[in-house]
Design brief:
seven-stranded mixed beta sheet; alpha+beta; 217 residues; three-stranded mixed beta sheet
Length: 217
């Protein structure tokens, strides 16, 4: 059974540039695979930027207002910026269930449980990437994104959740290639919460996440 105490839990208060984060993920991915460093759950915040996943379509990049970084994760274009909690997850699935689909579902459920701590009834939607909820106006909106890469059965990248970002910054892309639904945030839903409040909810629900990806008895 995986223990959270065996995993490095890191929270960065300073905004981390995307190249710095990517370099750290590449380094830790190999170190975890070789057994030289512990697994890592890294919670951070980026300056405003766009990332392009392996399925990204250049036509879905509508603005060059912020820098764009190619990334090895799956998915399309995503925005990261202040007020958004990003979680990068470097876990060795060979020690657990070597099952990509199960890992993605567990990651989604972890974010959904954390959002439930704030009274948000979030969900994953079949055939539509991300984490979804309803706005007070009754419209379905995206509050979180999921994008992972697995190399040598060690995970990289992870999730992002909108706590209180500038939602106008999403206008420079078609987020994850989905144009018919808006994005939202805890702030827009009328919920006052800090990044660290959300971190607390993540940590509370982390044992269930780890249990979901453990090898079944």
């Amino acid at each position: 059974m995986s223990k959270l105490s065996d995993i490095e839990w890191r929270t960065s208060d300073a905004k981390i540039s995307y190249p710095e984060a990517l370099a750290e993920m590449e380094h830790r991915n190999l170190a975890v695979y070789l057994g030289k460093e512990p697994e890592l759950i890294w919670l951070l915040e980026h300056p405003p930027l766009y990332t392009a996943g392996t399925s990204s379509n250049p036509a879905e990049l509508l603005s060059q207002e912020f820098p764009v970084f190619e990334t090895g994760r799956g998915g399309r274009h995503t925005y990261h910026g202040p007020g958004q909690r990003v979680g990068y997850i470097m876990l060795n699935l060979k020690k657990r269930q070597a099952d990509v689909r199960n890992f993605v579902h567990a990651l989604e459920d972890w974010v959904i449980r954390a959002l439930a701590e704030f009274g948000v009834s979030a969900r994953a939607v079949e055939g539509r990437v991300g984490i979804w909820c309803d706005t007070p106006q009754g419209k379905e909106a995206k509050i979180g994104a999921i994008g992972i890469r697995i190399r040598k059965w060690v995970t990289m990248h992870g999730f992002s959740v909108n706590i209180d970002p500038d939602l106008n910054h999403f206008n420079g892309i078609i987020p994850c290639g989905i144009s018919e639904y808006p994005v939202t945030s805890l702030k827009q839903l009328g919920i006052e919460a800090t990044l660290h409040d959300f971190d607390t909810a993540l940590k509370k629900n982390a044992p269930d996440f780890l249990a979901a990806i453990d090898k079944q008895a």
